[in-house]
Amino acid sequence: MPQLSVVVPVFNEQDNVASLVEEIVRALRGVTPFEIVYVDDHSRDNTLAILQQLKAQVPELRVLQHTTQSGQSTAVRTGVKAARAPWIATLDGDGQNDPADIPRLLAKRDASPPEVRMFAGWRVNRQDSGSKRWASRIANAIRTRMLRDDTPDTGCGIKLFEREAFLELPYFNHMHRYLPALMQRAGWQTVSVPVNHRARTTGVSKYNNLNRALVGVADLRGVAWLIRRAKITSVREV
Q1: H-assigned helices in 38-161
Q2: SS3 letters across 205-232
């Protein structure tokens, strides 16, 4: 049985699939027993066909497909629910996250107390456009002020977390942007770990500054409400 499941949500990423799978395999074979769970969010290009071809070459690869487009958060949750390992690593499907950082996150986990259930990537040298970097800085500053989650880069796609802890979190669309705050709300600790970040070389981004801002306002207010209403109770058997 795998000890780590690498969950990768994708939508129209036909030019990035094969190279990213190869990088994941290269980073993890010989490090830990693992599986790769790709979740195709009803792509309209050849993403699914390429994944099906890769399954014959990569025994660790599993492929799931949404029958309707459902969004990144739902794709991540689909992959986590299907995963067979107790710990999950997530990667964006565009190739900007570096799979070579996963062993670093695993090492950080092994050196941390059990109360830490999430290790969030922190893109200290982002390779996005200037406007996207500025928009993220503003959004992170507002989010930190409202949620006090002490996470400098909650939008980074590479994360390592315990499967069971994730599945206990409240589910809603766009929840993937607030995972550290939601983990802390559940009573767990989170740690941010500096990771590599790469420029997108093929394909196009599925988000822009405007649509992220529009949904972010409502989501941020909702998460802040969830945090205010949280109740954590210690339990002992008597």
Answers
A1: 47-55, 72-82, 102-110, 130-147
A2: CCCCHHHHHHHHHHHHHHHHHHHHCCCC
What is the spatial distance between Cα 162 and Cα 23, in angstroms, rounded to a whole number? 23
Distances (CA, A) of 189 to 126, 162, 175, 230, 236: 25, 12, 18, 15, 20
38 closest CA partner among 155, 26, 58: 58
- Cβ count within 10 A of residue 202: 11
- Cβ atoms 73, 176 nearer than 8 A: yes
* Residue range 24-73, pLDDT digits in tens: 999 999 999 999 999 999 999 999 999 999 999 999 999 999 999 999 99
Of 183, 203, 217, which Cα lies nearest the Cα of 94?
A: 203
Q: Which two tokens stand for residue 156?
A: 């980074």
Per DSSP, what are the bridge partners of residue 102? none
Q: Does residue 1 or residue 146 have the better pLDDT?
A: 1
Structural domains in the chain, sorted by start = 4-228 (3.90.550.10)
209 pLDDT higher than 70 = no
Task: State phi, psi for 209 to the nearest 5 degrees.
Answer: -60, -35
Residue range 174-193, pLDDT digits in tens: 999 999 999 999 999 999 99
Q: Are 89 and 159 in contact (CB under 8 A)?
A: yes
The DSSP string of 130-193 is HHHHHHHHHHHHHHHHHH----TTTT-S-EEEEHHHHHTSPP-TTGGGGHHHHHHHTT-EEEEE
